[in-house]
Specification:
347 residues, eight-stranded antiparallel β-sheet, alpha+beta, single chain
């Protein structure tokens, strides 16, 4: 039997987990010596995608931004499990029935997902779709109720990345069980950011920052002498910045229990589900990971969030910078994050 919700917290869009500090330049004149800063925001992938570009040619900026957003929309249409025409939806529809022919691009992102699953020993798992549907956090039109424990246990049987079969020779993907479902929410947004960033660079745009709800890629610099500044929000007071650091030509992703959540009988339930037990992770409030690509940062932020600070700090298999805020609000950095990015903790 489902438990009724007390104190429902509903968000139309996820809270942005990292913010960018910058100033726009007035576009009153245009010449090769002046660098203009142009920003654009659109709703994609269930969040606000904001891009700030610095270049001497405003018309070039406009064309590059248009192409970048078109590219990110294309990736969403390809990989979203919530869009009926997507290749992921097609795979899910034929789960347990037959392999599905997909593009090389979709096959590659699923292959990469399996790599992260193996590295994380299953804490990151894109076969979590049935469990995600049971909880319903990605459905803005749904009134969330706490699933019965028996429902959670039975649904867990359909989660298992080893039952995702990919065939490189004919580019097909097959889900072994008819109740399995893919959900690439933990990696597709990062991949879309990488594709959007690549499109900007193809236009010769070097200095920009692309922020999709806290998953970010920065290229070049904010100005000639200054890197981009990234701020991490307090998970329990999102109007407050608690950590800042500078970044250049790198990606950063933050997973938090405050992006999509409900308070039920005084307990916070959120969208980052643990494939081991079927319930939201209980060891972290947020986790920020830095990596060369947004895809990698996105996937590993989920992994380290679920792993929790104590085990994450002992993990030697992944040499990656990260910051974790525990459920008690304590900030943990690993040594690589400290040495490479020199973060500043704000009081």
């Amino acid at each position: 039997m489902n438990v009724k919700i007390n104190n429902v917290y509903r968000f139309i869009l996820p809270v942005i987990t990292a913010i960018v500090i910058f100033c726009n330049i007035n576009l009153s004149a245009q010449n090769k010596d002046m660098q203009y800063s142009v920003s654009e925001s659109k709703i994609l992938m269930g969040t606000i995608v904001k891009t700030t570009v610095r270049n001497s040619n405003v018309n070039l900026i406009k064309r590059a931004l248009k192409a970048a957003y078109k590219e990110m929309q294309r990736v969403e249409d390809l990989l979203s499990s919530h869009k009926k025409g997507s290749e992921i939806s097609h795979i899910n529809f034929f789960a347990g029935i037959r392999p599905v022919k997909v593009s090389f691009e979709t096959l590659t992102i699923i292959k990469n997902s399996l790599y992260y699953s193996k590295k994380s020993k299953g804490l990151f798992d894109v076969s979590i779709g049935s469990l995600s549907n049971l909880w319903g956090f990605s459905d803005d039109n749904r009134v969330i109720e706490l699933p019965d424990s028996a429902e959670v246990d039975s649904t867990l049987r359909y989660v298992g990345y080893r039952n995702i079969i990919i065939n490189h020779s004919d580019t097909t993907v097959f889900l072994k069980d008819k109740n399995m479902q893919l959900d690439l929410g933990g990696i597709a947004k990062g991949y879309a950011i990488d594709r959007g960033s690549a499109k900007l660079k193809s236009f010769g745009v070097i200095n920009f920052i692309l922020n999709a709800g806290g998953d970010i890629y920065v290229s070049g610099r904010k100005d000639k002498n200054k890197k981009w500044t990234i701020g991490i929000k307090d998970p329990r007071n999102t109007s407050k910045i608690i950590v800042v650091f500078n970044l250049e030509n790198y990606a950063v992703a933050t997973s938090g229990d405050y992006e999509r959540f409900r308070i039920i009988n005084g307990v916070r339930y959120h969208h980052i589900l643990n494939p081991y037990d079927g319930y939201p992770g209980r060891l972290s409030e947020s986790c920020t990971v830095l990596a060369p690509t947004a895809e990698e940062a996105d996937a590993l932020a989920t992994y380290f969030f679920l792993l929790g600070p104590q085990k994450a700090l002992k993990n030697k298999s992944l040499n990656i910078p990260f910051l974790i805020i525990s459920t008690k609000g304590k900030i943990y950095y690993n040594s690589l994050f400290k040495s490479k990015f020199n973060p500043k903790t704000l009081e």
